[in-house]
Write a structure and sequence with these properties.
By secondary structure, this protein is of the alpha+beta class. It contains three helices and twelve strands, in the order αααββββββββββββ.
Length: 173
């Protein structure tokens, strides 16, 4: 039976794999490309922003802003603050001020996020000397009204600029 399988395979590939399976190879390649594209997308996100911090120095005036529209008030949403830091970041935590602007009101909230364990080991997902975090600002939040909303996040540490911050962002899903 091995000889039969080997002979069949030899016959199929005798003229080269391009002529033996012209459509199958292209379809597999197309399917893999589509899989990669769609797996990288977050279809549940209302908005997903990322902002590079110039020279890894986050100034008080350099805020992360996200404007979005809520059309469905019947489902809960989650709002996350996204952060990427380098080994140059000097603290085990971070304070930020989040300003929520709603159609009928505004609210400012101060958050503290823990970035490292007591022994100094970063708790974020690491890649080289960069560590990525996603912190919830609002969990299972029901927006009261449909309409336009915005969120603005500013660093609220004593240092200005705050060194070692590579990227910041906001995600609403």
């Amino acid at each position: 039976m091995n000889k039969l399988v080997r002979n069949t395979a030899e016959e199929l590939f005798k003229h080269g794999s391009r002529t033996a399976f012209p459509l199958i190879g292209k379809n597999i390649l197309l399917a893999l490309c589509l899989l990669c594209v769609f797996s990288a997308c977050n279809f549940n996100a209302v908005i997903d922003t990322n902002q590079s911090i110039e020279n890894n120095k986050w100034l008080y005036t350099n805020t992360s802003k996200a404007e979005f529209e809520i059309k469905d008030v019947s489902r809960p949403y989650q709002v996350n603050f996204k952060l990427r830091i380098s080994n140059d970041y000097r603290y085990s935590n971070m304070y930020v001020l989040a300003t929520f602007k709603q159609p009928k009101s505004n609210k400012k909230v101060r958050y503290q996020f823990k970035l490292a364990k007591a022994d100094g080991q970063w708790t974020g997902k690491g890649s080289g000397d960069l560590y990525t975090y996603s912190f919830p600002l609002l969990k299972n939040h029901s927006f009261a009204d449909t309409g336009k909303y915005s969120i603005e996040i500013a660093q609220n540490m004593r240092d200005n600029p705050l060194l070692g911050v590579s990227d910041i962002g906001i995600e609403v899903k």
